Amino acid sequence: xxxxxxxxxxxxxxxxxxxxxxxxxxxxxxxxxxxxxxxxxxxxxxxxxxxxxxxxxxxxxxxxxxxxxxxxxxxxxxxxxxxxxxxxxxxxxxxxxxxxxxxxxxxxxxxxxxxxxxxxxxxxxxxxxxxxxxxxxxxxxxxxxxxxxxxxxxxxxxxxx
Length: 161
Hints:
The protein is α+β, with helices and mostly antiparallel strands.
């Protein structure tokens, strides 16, 4: 007389896929825990594009480092534009940037900034038009994505150079 230890576990097609999924998904996603933070090193150039309805549109050139072996996309930004350490606006739109793996290079992208106060913003707009961006800086978070993995990365006060 033979006794089956697990009579309910017969290796039908569906159960094989279920076991495969239970074993493989943790392995698949555990590799993403080695995700290293990308770094917004410096902002090398800012070009004024438009100012309409209290929204300032800029073209930004920045040096960004991706130390990961795989490419990532910067999906969105929740960042503040500051003049002399005072917040003058919030980035409301940023085009997606695809960062190649293990690179440090210049990327050019467009952003839209919702300005807060008209008088303060007039001073900032004047500085931008006169290419006096030495006292401007950015801080906040970037949301990046690679395959199924999403991560928010904190950016601490990057200044324009």
